[in-house]
Amino acid sequence: MRYPASEKLDIIRIVEQSHLPAKRTLDMLGIPRTTFYRWYDRYLSLGEAGLADRSSRPGRVWNRIPDAVRRQIVDLALEEPDLSPRELAVRFTDTERYFVSEASVYRLL
């Protein structure tokens, strides 16, 4: 379950002001301790802005072919129009020492 920043701040304040131990308060609230302390650490280091939801999406795709390599593959395909995507992939891998799959070449063309 995702909590908005305002609810996270309310939970932090409840735990801070409670006379009970944090573990017990969190158990009563139904919040895992690891989750709470992750929020609390971000709150202490970044303030309320640290409680805002962050995107879980990665900043970049780990296996994306760089644009320069993409251009080289397209240039090779234009120079050798009679080659299939499989042959282009093999030729590119042999000449440029950079592995690209047949499927990647096919998608680029």
Structure description:
The protein has helices spanning 5-17, 22-29, 33-46, 67-79, 85-96, 102-108. The chain is mainly alpha-helical and 109 residues long. 61% of the residues lie in helices and 0% in strands. The protein is built from 6 helices and no strands. Helix 1 (5-17) crosses helix 3 (33-46) and helix 5 (85-96) crosses helix 6. The protein folds into 2 domains: 5-51; 67-108. The mean pLDDT is 94.
Question: How would you summarize the topology of this molecule?
Answer:
Elements: H1 5-17, H2 22-29, H3 33-46, H4 67-79, H5 85-96, H6 102-108
Entry keywords:
single chain, 109 residues, mainly alpha, 2 domains, 61% helix, rod-shaped
User: What separation lies between the terminal Cα atoms?
Assistant: 42 Å
Q: Bin the strand percentage.
A: under 5%
Helix content: 55-70%
Mean pLDDT: 94
- Structural class estimated from helices and strands: mainly alpha
Main pleated-sheet profile: none
Low-pLDDT stretches: none
How many helices? The count is 6
**Assembly status:** single chain
The rounded Rg comes to: 26 Å
Indicate the overall shape.
Answer: rod-shaped
β-strand number: 0
Q: In the residues, how many domains can be counted?
A: 2
Along the chain, the helix and strand elements come as: HHHHHH
Organism: Roseibium alexandrii (strain DSM 17067 / NCIMB 14079 / DFL-11) (Labrenzia alexandrii)
Pfam family, one: HTH_32
Keywords: Plasmid
Protein name: Homeodomain-containing protein
